[in-house]
Design brief:
With 577 residues, this protein is mainly β. It is 5% helix and 28% strand. Strands 4, 7, 9, 12, 13 and 15 form a six-stranded mixed β-sheet that branches. A six-stranded mixed β-sheet has the order 19-28-27-21-25-24, with no helix packed on it. It has a five-stranded mixed β-sheet with strand order 8-11-5-3-14, with no helix packed on it. The radius of gyration is 28 Å and the shape is flat.
Length: 577
């Protein structure tokens, strides 16, 4: 067993010997997305207060991503970094590290790349220490040399091992969230679909005195595994074939984002043609996101998963003013041998202390939906269809499919279909709107926020368990884990008040200016003082002075759809952001 011996030899160079500990392998993390919490969370586990090791499968970003989606066909190689994180309160020196990273066991999806020459000190092999974020001269990773396949049998997967020490110039990893890459492992992509897990073992980290800071297998960690998830490529959209007078050559271009067979959210204000002025929920064409660049501050340009929901009480007629319509959309559903979409289900979770209601509505199999010829959503009044999902006194369905359920803070959407014609009609294909949500902010937020600088509450509307199947119940191509959609994405909603909007009508006018001017000079303890009017600074300075007056006067003409200055939705609310 060369790995423990290699570790003891390395630590002996520092004047200390460390024994072999007990193995603990991290469990898979499922589909919950905790990436918004930066380095404190890995999977569902809080690693705060620890020195720990984690696999980062997206080496192109600063964050540590436990799972990365990779299209197939796509890149010829993928890479993962093994990283050290210090969430304790003090910095620590790192003088010796080793780990083993086990790749895809049956090598159906990835195989570690075999490097060329790997001379001592072994810092440019695979694993590759030259990509490390651990500075300092004196590092050596040989002997033994790093090994991309410890049993020399790629068919069994790849156990990639590296062990490095620095007796003369050990670097420091800062406390309170400091991170550093230890080494990078590069893999050849073999073309299979599904999840390729990356599992850590034989992990040890020691300081300059040989004191063990961390151990996993042997040892209790914590260590956090990772994975690559190989999915079909985005669906292509064909450019029309040119005529005789047109420019030659038709090309096929793939949509850049939100492609695949998943369920995603499109806030109404982000749609390329804006909200439906009639208020009905029609079949919404999915916009090509790079072309979506609204000029207002209600939607982050190019990213429809972010939006503002404005607290508004009078004259609220713009998107996101008082309520926000959000659409659940399926993209790239293939025709396939069994005929398009036959059923779907997913759950929407939300914080009911922030959002009081979602007013859910199933669409795709309802009247005017893309699959209405197969659909069970019977929203019919005596003659006309009720496609906006408003309450209908003549039916118990009110726009929900027969398998949908409304709970306290979870909405479960579920539709099964049957054919009403012979032969079977195919389900809808391509891009379609599955359902809608109408987000209503909790009324208590009116008393918790005030129209000052950077006000707001950020909340996630989270999708879970997204499944799309054909009319015979077969998972669609590209589904993973027995039928889960490859994409199941969340929306991040910022609930806020337009700065300077004192009467909550989503615009700053002379009415707001007059409302605050009449309180000029008021201070805490007087009858004219109100925290609602104490706008500057954010934490209140207990008087209404010239700063507060200018806060409103300088914003006259500002609206929720075009706030001055911009109040863009918040994309990240992690503790380290």
């Amino acid at each position: 067993m060369k790995k423990p011996q290699a570790l003891i030899g390395l630590l002996a160079a520092l004047g200390t010997a460390i024994g072999v500990m007990v193995a603990v392998i991290g469990l898979p993390y499922g589909r919950a997305d905790y990436s918004a919490f930066a380095e404190v969370y890995h999977g569902t586990q809080n690693a705060g207060g620890t020195v720990h090791i984690a696999v980062d499968t997206d080496v192109t970003t600063a964050a540590t991503e436990a799972n990365t989606l990779v299209p197939v066909p796509g890149p010829a190689t993928v890479a993962a970094d093994v990283t050290i994180h210090n969430e304790t309160g003090a910095s620590t020196l790192v003088a010796a590290v080793n780990f083993n990273l086990q790749g895809d066991v049956n090598a159906a999806k990835i195989t570690a790349v075999t490097p060329g020459a790997c001379p001592p000190p072994g810092t440019t092999c695979n694993p590759d220490f030259s990509e490390s974020g651990l500075p300092g001269a004196g590092w050596s990773c040989s002997p033994p040399n790093p090994d991309d396949d410890t049993d020399n049998n790629p068919a069994n997967g790849s156990d990639s091992f590296i062990s490095c020490s620095n007796a003369s110039d050990p670097p420091s990893v800062a406390g309170g969230g400091g991170t550093a890459d230890i080494a990078r492992v590069t893999y050849t992509v073999n073309g299979g679909l599904g999840i390729a897990p990356l599992t850590l073992s034989v992990v040890n980290v020691a300081d300059e005195l040989g004191v063990e800071l961390l151990a996993c297998n042997p040892g209790a960690g914590p260590c956090f595994d990772g994975s690559f998830e190989f999915i079909p490529p985005p669906p292509a959209t064909e450019t029309p074939t040119p005529g005789p007078t047109d420019t030659p050559t038709a090309t096929a271009t793939a949509t850049a984002t939100l492609a695949g067979y998943g369920v995603i959210k499109i806030p109404e204000s982000c749609l390329s043609d804006g909200p439906d002025p009639g208020g009905d929920v029609d079949v919404i064409p999915v916009p090509v996101l790079p072309a979506v660049a609204p000029a207002n501050g209600n939607c982050e340009p190019g990213d429809p998963s972010l939006a503002n929901l404005w607290i508004c009480e009078i004259d609220c007629d713009g998107p996101g003013e008082g309520t926000l319509k959000v659409y659940e959309v399926a993209q790239g559903v293939p025709a396939g041998p069994d005929g398009g979409l036959g059923a779907y289900e997913f759950s929407v979770e939300y914080d009911n202390f922030v959002i009081s209601s979602l007013n859910p509505c199933d669409i795709v199999f309802g009247p005017d939906g893309a699959g209405e010829d197969r659909g069970p959503v019977d929203e019919l009044d005596t003659s006309a269809s009720n496609s906006d999902c408003a309450d209908d006194p003549n039916t118990d369905l009110d726009g929900t499919c027969n398998m949908s359920h409304i709970l306290e803070n979870i909405i479960h959407f579920g539709c099964v279909t049957s054919d009403t014609t012979a032969p079977f009609s195919d389900g809808p294909t391509g891009d379609m709107t599955l359902a809608s949500l109408e987000l209503v902010p909790h009324e208590d937020l009116r008393d918790d926020l005030f129209p000052g600088n950077d006000n707001g509450v950020v909340t996630i509307i989270k999708d879970n368990g997204c499944e799309l199947v054909d009319q015979f119940g077969h998972p669609l191509p590209g589904d993973v884990n027995g039928g889960l959609a490859a994409y199941c994405q969340n929306a991040i909603i910022t609930i806020r008040i337009l700065e300077g909007d004192l009467n909550l009508d989503c615009e700053v006018t002379v009415d707001d200016a007059q409302a605050i001017a009449g309180h000029y000079g008021a201070f805490f303890g007087s009858l004219l003082y109100s925290k609602w009017l104490d706008l500057e600074p954010n934490l209140h300075d207990l008087d209404i002075d010239i700063k507060d007056i200018q806060k409103v006067f300088g914003r006259i003409g500002s609206t929720c759809q075009d706030p001055v200055p911009a109040q863009t939705p918040v994309a990240d609310f992690s503790p380290n952001s």
